[in-house]
Amino acid sequence: xxxxxxxxxxxxxxxxxxxxxxxxxxxxxxxxxxxxxxxxxxxxxxxxxxxxxxxxxxxxxxxxxxxxxxxxxxxxxxxxxxxxxxxxxxxxxxxxxxxxxxxxxxxxxxxxxxxxxxxxxxxxxxxxxxxxxxxxxxxxxxxxxxxxxxxxxxxxxxxxxxxxxxxxxxxxxxxxxxxxxxxxxxxxxxxxxxxxx
Length: 197
Hints:
Blueprint: H1 2-17, H2 28-47, H3 51-75, H4 80-107, H5 111-135, H6 148-161, H7 164-196
Helix pairs in contact: 2-3, 2-4, 3-6, 4-5, 5-7, 6-7
């Protein structure tokens, strides 16, 4: 939802605010990998309870994640592999961040919070999986309240404000609704395709 509403504006802000990144061709895949590595540092911060630092590092990793696609489109070097790499490393980062939180809550003896973080990890992956599978059969499948942008912003906000548990609940509920929305939409669209074939 954030990406759909602000995508073009964010791209314009990046072009104006960071012009040096667009003067020479920078490999967008390199930016993708750097962003993932930075975000893995955030996961490590979460695991040891350094939530504020983790939130800042997480935002830095997210900035690289925004830049790779903008740079690729600006220089006309977007590739299928680049999209695959970006999507795959996004899943790695999502799981690592939530594993970091799971490890922290396990270490301090909070089993309910461990289950919450583990559930958020599972349902977050399911949100992306449902989209990927639906797109194999349904062109332009853009359905759902909570996408990755919303999850990252809310988790970062939770880390920076010290309200991580409420943030996890919001992501858990929003992601669950999104999975249901995608299943219902996929059923409807695929049923129409089968009727027309």
